[in-house]
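User: For my dataset I need records formatted as: sequence, then structure tokens, nothing else. Please produce one.
Assistant:
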Amino acid sequence: MGDTIFSGYSQLLGDARVAAILVGGKPTDAAAAGQAAEIVLDRSPFYAESGGQVGDRGVLSISGSGTTFLVSDVQKAGGGRLFAHAGIVQGGELRVGSVVSAAVDASLRRRVRQMHANCEIRHSPPT
């Protein structure tokens, strides 16, 4: 499995392939409705928690299938090379190799970015 390619600086929506699925911390080929899982994508517009800024939230979905996965957090894994999208399958089934539409919650991203910028300004040393 190669590194997750981060595309979130230029886009908040994009297609990606499911590279790995973990349920209960163990690799598996699929996750079905109601299961909590971590999904590793080959590319992702989701920002992974880093530098004091929380990870993005949003949705992974497969068009026309009813498959949706609510992303509640994104963490770096594999020494920072992989992005693990934590959440729950809301409907359908995700399988390794599936192509999903990855959509970041843009409103939350803006609020988090603004809050993070405000904290940096407040905690900057006086000049």
